[in-house]
Amino acid sequence: MKKNDVRKESVVHDAEKNRKIIQIICSILVALGVWLYVGEEKTVSVTTQVHDLPVEFAGEDTTMAEKGLMLLSGYDTTVDLKLKGPRMVLWKLDKDEIRIVADTSSVQDTGVQTLTYEVVYPDNIQRNQIQVAWASLYSITVTVGELYTKEVDIYCDVNGNVPEGFVAEKLLLDPAKLVLRAQRDDLLNVSYAKVKIDLSGAKQTVIKTVGFQLYDYNDILIENDNIRAATKLIQVTVPVKTVKEVPLLINFVEATGSTMAQVDYSIDPKKVILKGDKAVLDGISSIVLDTIYLQDLKPSQSLHYEIPIPKDTELVGEKKEATVTIVVEGVSERRVSTTNFTCNNIPEGYEASVVTESLSVTLRGLSEEIDALDGSNLQIGADLSRITGEGSFTVPASVKIDGYSNVGVKGNYQVIVNVSLAQQTQPNPTPDPNPDPGSEARIMPEPQATAEEPSDVVNTHEQAENA
Fold first, then answer.
1. Of 74, 102, 196, 424, which is least packed with CB atoms within 10 Å of its CB?
2. pLDDT surpasses 70 at 3
């Protein structure tokens, strides 16, 4: 039994080994086949055909035109090609990007001329990788004549209408005039060029590039292939705008004692009409003429403004200015003096005092409250928050009004302050709750001052002062 098992294991091992060998051989054969195929794709030449390639004439609008020459025929020539090259190269070739370019630099006179041409391939193709195996034409035959030019007007037929509420404005053409080139006889009857554009349903500016047609002086269409233009297309721009009525506004800034409750005003005109693209006008809800602080108003005044026109819009109508009339009632101003001063934000370790003896403040508010208050209702606060040392300083001052809520302060104020180091005070000694009994014997009684001693102290001081 053991010998049989060994034989079976040996047979199985040999079978697995043979399978691995076969797999390796197959892999090598497949790789070799792929390599041969790829190599063949890169080296084996194949052919492909390209039809109706239009011929481009290099220098026609520059070199030839400077010589007073032009192509009368042959400019519409096309060429068929049979190209030969590696299969992979031709597979990457975009036939729509192949160009036939004829050189006109050798043309010097009128008449029949023979031009050579060059095949231009896309940038991803190297010229030496492809050969022209066959061509329907190996040279280009053209007829050259004298160049005559004529500049004609361009007219535009506008079809359709814009929706209600919109306006189609004067159209713009680019170029504004058309330059034609041909022989003299072909250009004699050309009167103008015409383009067409449709504005049906247009709610915004229309910009289109369109072809043109030529007409004679009797408005009859001219169809002459010998007439060539400096441009093949005309850009037509038709501004389509709408209108919108917007109010004129004044931005009033209120303050204590100066509120809109005491102000009556009017704006003439109240509204204006703007014209522009719908997208622009949708973002405009009003026009602000000015910002006015109520504290600065006089009892009655008229202000005149040139109406500011928002960007990319136009003002409809002849009125370009607005007048604002303002009347203020029940409000008055008065100057009140006070001596009530305090120092705020004194730096630590310092003390301060106000040197300014009196400050006159301009107040504005309801007339009855202005007439009732006096200096005792004002409190001036000197701000020392920026002071860092000793000396005399001019600092900003705030004004607080007590008892009158409809009165405000006009203007900014300053006071002079004196800042010095704070005086250090000696603390009183704390008595000992458990004194030493023997210490009482060492305490000397204080001498009693006689009636004559104070005069001696004053004198000492006087002597010290005199010294």
1. 424
2. no
Q: Would you say the pTM of this structure is higher than 0.85?
A: no
Q: Predicted confidence band at 427 (pLDDT cuts at 50, 70, 90)? A: low
Unique residue bearing structure tokens 């001081």: 461
Pairwise CA distance, residues 123 & 97, whole Å: 9
Check: CB of residue 339 under 8 Å from CB of residue 356: no
Beta bridge pairs of residue 209:
235
For the chain, what are the domain ranges?
45-146, 148-238, 242-329, 332-421
- H or E segment at 39? helix 2-43
| Residue that is written with structure tokens 């109010």 in the block | 247
CATH number listed for the domain at residues 148-238: 2.170.120.40
User: In this structure, what token pair is assigned to residue 379?
Assistant: 């409190």
H-helix or E-strand spanning residue 240: strand 240-253
- 197, 194, 195: which is closest to 168 by C-alpha? 197
Peptide bond between residue 247 and the one before it cis (omega within 30 degrees of 0): no
3-state secondary structure of 168: strand
148-238 and 242-329, same CATH topology:
yes
Task: Give phi and psi for 5, each to the nearest 5.
Answer: -65, -40
Spatial neighbors of 5 by CB under 8 A, at least 6 apart, are none
Q: Could you read off the pLDDT of 252-270 as tens digits, one per residue?
A: 999 888 899 999 999 999 9
